[in-house]
Design goal:
By secondary structure, the protein is mostly helical. It contains 17 helices and no strands. The longest helix is centred in the last third of the chain and has 38 residues.
Length: 352
């Protein structure tokens, strides 16, 4: 069993250790290996049962607490998992895994500062661990320090310059700090060197959209469509960019048309006009107020979101952008109609 374990022959080692257990149910090596194997196979309940047996026979053992913590994480017993992993971190001072898992648990509860502390401690033990660097950079970004995230990523990129995930995260961090030129360069390089990625396509699309390079942005958003599970985010960007492209074409068409002549007004129905303009004025301002409330509600939801889900944050941003565009346009139309109606009401006093 020990030889098979050393050869990473997990299946045959499992069978050998199970035979050992029939002779020696409390065998140290058999219990520890089988716990690892069950966790590896996502049999967390089976691993946890062995953990209880192991802990009773061999107390204060770091590897056992680590496997116990993994089982509890899979069973979503967060408080107990955190206690087991903290014990493992104490008993295994040179092992990065319990600290990384503690960081992951903190990320799941949106405690980004606590997660960052765990990741940075683990990085002291393993400074060239790419996964740790990526997790630490993510925590730095979500805790409000994208500049530190970019520094962390650039340090690891010195050795892992061809790692595509590092390339992508560098581009996303550059976008977050407002360096859109560098983000555009690095995200384009990332997308040219392998498979497409939803976040990279959406962010790069936003960069081109901000530059008013709408055809390029549309191409990126359309490439993102097959990667978007519910299609809502990418589809909304496609619809928004098409609306912008259509609006620009319409505006260009309007600038080519000759201005129409004015139409005068004469008549004795001043009272009727005053009633209608008064109603239009009041209705316009009420409509504008209601549209403004919709925008304010979307703004509040977006700014108050503290989650770690970038897609969710992007959806909230799109909701806000849509409200600002559509409701904002209606708000301006209503307010404009109200103001013009007020002017129209005033003009009736000067009509002979």
């Amino acid at each position: 069993a020990l030889v098979l374990e050393a050869l990473d022959d997990w299946e045959n080692a499992e069978r050998a250790y199970e035979e050992v257990m029939t002779i020696d149910p409390g065998n140290f090596h058999a219990l520890l290996f089988l716990m690892r194997k069950y966790n590896k196979d996502h049999k967390a309940s089976d691993a946890l049962k062995l953990s209880q047996l192991f802990e009773a026979k061999y107390p204060d053992n770091g590897p056992e607490y680590l496997e116990k913590g993994k089982s509890l994480v899979m069973l979503n017993q967060v408080k107990a998992a955190r206690a087991a992993l903290s014990k493992a971190a104490t008993l295994l001072p040179d092992n990065t895994e319990p600290r990384m898992l503690l960081g992951d648990l903190s990320m799941q509860s949106n405690d980004f500062n606590a997660a960052l502390k765990h990741y940075l401690k683990a990085m002291e033990l393993s400074p060239q661990n790419v996964d740790l660097a990526l997790k630490a950079a993510r925590a730095q970004t979500l805790s409000g320090d994208p500049k530190a995230a970019l520094e962390t990523l650039k340090k690891i990129a010195v050795k892992f310059y061809d790692n595509r995930v590092v390339q992508k995260e560098i581009g996303l961090a550059e976008f977050q700090i407002g360096d859109t030129a560098a983000a555009k360069r690095d995200l384009n390089r990332f997308l040219q060197n392998g498979e497409p990625d939803l976040n990279a396509l959406l962010v790069l699309g936003r960069i081109y959209e901000g530059l008013r390079e709408y055809p390029e942005a549309l191409d990126l958003y359309e490439k993102a469509l097959p990667l978007d599970d519910n299609k809502s985010l990418a589809q909304r960007r496609v619809d928004a960019i098409k609306a912008k492209m259509g609006g620009r074409a319409l505006q260009e068409d309007r600038t080519r048309r000759p201005a129409s002549g004015g139409v005068g007004f004469k008549g004795s129905g001043r009272l009727t006009i005053r009633v209608l303009t008064t109603a239009a004025c009041i209705g316009g301002f009420i409509g504008g107020y209601m549209m403004n409330k919709q925008i304010a509600a979307a703004q509040e939801e977006y700014t108050s979101y503290k989650g770690a889900d970038q897609i969710k944050m992007a959806q909230l941003h799109d909701d806000l952008e849509t409200k600002q565009k559509n409701s904002g346009l209606l708000r301006n139309i209503f307010y404009g109609a109200g103001a013009l109606s007020a002017i129209g009401f005033s003009v009736t006093f000067f009509i002979k």
